[in-house]
Amino acid sequence: MSHVAKREWRRFTPRERAVRYGVYLATAVAFSAALRSIEVVPEFLRDTPAQVADLLVRMWPVDWGFLVSTVTVAMVETIHIATLGTLATLLIAFPLGVLAARNIVASPTVRFAAKLCLVASRSVNSLVWALFFVAVFGPGALAGTVAITFRSIGFVGKLLGEALEEVAPGPVEAIVAVGAPWRSVFLKGYWPQVKPAFLSMALLRWDINVRESSVLGLVGAGGIGLVLDSAINVFQWRAVAAVLVAIAIVVLLAEVTVTFLRKRII
Q: What is the number of other CB atoms lying within 10 angstroms of the CB of residue 128?
């Protein structure tokens, strides 16, 4: 009587398991190296709750007078920085996104150049851009607006290019078949399919830019961050609380506004 070998089902092959364990090990080693490199002091961690409690006591009550007289004006400037930066982003990122789409532009060189610009924009943090443009234009809202623009171009352009590459080819091929010029092909074939995604990108990026504009003033790029930095430097903790309250309110309102507009427009 022959015996049939018992087979045991396993989700992963031995090679796949070895790769997974290797990834886990590499992650653990990287995490340990990171903890050592940042030099965490246990004494400071144990003292953190007491320090936070003391800071909250100093921040209360909130300086509402400072909020009305100073913070409101700076917050309006922050919203202007985010809005103008977003509008400038759309004007620059749109053609770059089109040039980066492989189903629209046949030249690999042109696509590479467009994607290089988008990658360069995304790879630099907004605070680094702000530092650079503060050195170019001097402290103020202009530097913050340009920094927001350069930071956002890569985000919007990349997503637009990917959206264009994923359009259904049928409508485009039908318009091309009747001999329509490229402008009509784009406006009637591509744009209707990517318009909802593009509007969603614009609203989402404006929401992100409102948040990022709030901290650009820490490096001199105007807005509410400049007021926050000044209050921290002179230990006016009640004024700091007023700034934080204003930032929280504006960020919440921006989130509600973007959600409302997406439901009504898109």
A: 14
